[in-house]
Amino acid sequence: MIKLTIDGQVIETAAGSTLLEAAQQAGVTIPTLCHLADLTPEGACRVCVVEVEGARGLVTACTYPASEGLVVRTNVNLP
Ligand code: FES
Fold first, then answer.
1. Which amino acid residue places its CA nearest to atom 3 of ligand 1?
2. Is 58 in the pocket of ligand 1 (CB under 6 A)?
3. What is the pLDDT of residues 24-49, one digit of tens each?
């Protein structure tokens, strides 16, 4: 298990999860379009982009691996 922060909420998730899966487990809604469960994520539509502290740009939550200590923001209106 790993811990990361999404919208100020510390979340524990299984290693190998994506940011989308971690957010869903925590009840944080991230909209998706091209993501379909049970299919290989493509990251094509970019509807699910989120901000990861330290990353160069926005990342696609459906493909980005959750990792220990990440700080993620899904809503620009949050502090
Ligand atoms: S849902 Fe399309 S890129 Fe993530």
1. 43
2. no
3. 999 999 999 998 877 787 888 999 99
CB distance 18 to ligand 1 below 6 Å: no
Q: Is 34 in the pocket of ligand 1 (CB under 6 A)?
A: yes
SS3 72: strand
Which of 49, 23, 22, 24 minimizes the C-alpha distance to 34? Answer: 49
* Domain count of the fold of the chain: 1
CATH number at residue 65: 3.10.20.740
pTM of the model as a whole:
0.90
Coil, helix or strand at residue 11: strand
| Residue 26 domain boundaries | 2-73
At 41-73, the pLDDT tens digits run: 788 899 999 999 999 999 999 999 999 999 999
